[in-house]
Amino acid sequence: MKSLAVKVFDSNNIEIYPDGDSRRLFLNFNKEKMVNASLLAFEFPEKNINDFIKDKQVIAFMERLGEETGRPVLVKEYWGFEYSIWMHRALAFKFAAWLTLDFELWLYDVAENMLLAETDYPDTEPSEEGNNNQIDD
């Protein structure tokens, strides 16, 4: 599986360079820990953020995420005629995966390694067999 180069400037600014792509994903967090999606997509001009947020699966994801968090998951911040789009962290990861396949594959690889590791997961209870863990929502 491909790897990522990660450059952490501080807890609010992180650059990710997917292997196989010279372009970066820039994670810029605000005080609510939402991600500036406009900056995230900056180096992917061929991808339009509006195409992403109009996708039926993305709309369903945003609705469910909003229900789970009780907070807005997508915010437009205006100043004059310009604006930035801010996304909840989970939506921003979905957006980044849409921007570059290498990042999406890396996310699945991380999740697979975590789930298949012999680990006690937080907020889980052993199954009746005692060998499997069930992850609660």
UniProtKB/TrEMBL annotation:
InterPro entries: KilA/APSES_HTH, KilA_N. Residues 13-114 form the KilA-N domain. Pfam families: KilA-N. It comes from the Bacteria. This is KilA-N domain-containing protein.
